[in-house]
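Sharing a chain and its predicted structure for anyone who wants a worked example. Both blocks are below, sequence first, tokens second.
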Amino acid sequence: MTAHIHVTLDAKRKEIIAYIGSLEADLEQARRDLSAIIATEHVFQSRGPNVTAYMNMAMVFPRHELPKFARAALEASPDGLSTVQVAAHVIAAKGLDVKDRHLRKAIGYKVVQLLRQWEKKRKIERVGKVGTAMQGFISSLVMIF
């Protein structure tokens, strides 16, 4: 009789150990899911120096803010600026991390798009190009917004 109780208890012990193992695996998966959700929230709620380059730039710059900063940079330099210099001015004016090379590249790309639009609309003129950066955009024409 004691052998039967011993076998039954041993089987129940193995069943509980297996159940605990499956609960621990579920708990670990839940922790990974929670970590991913928290990281995603952090990306979409980031402002200021925590902004990363893989964010949507529309979230970083509200409507008409990027053109406002670019226009201020061009007006501050009558000799003209390169797209890299305009992007650096925009990053500094926004209060973002100037040392983040990915952010500089992403904002520089948006600045190039903006300045090319202005060039097509004849709001600015291109003086030349140095390396990969367009050099000497000047606001020689009246900029209308």
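Comments welcome. Residues 2-45 form one domain.
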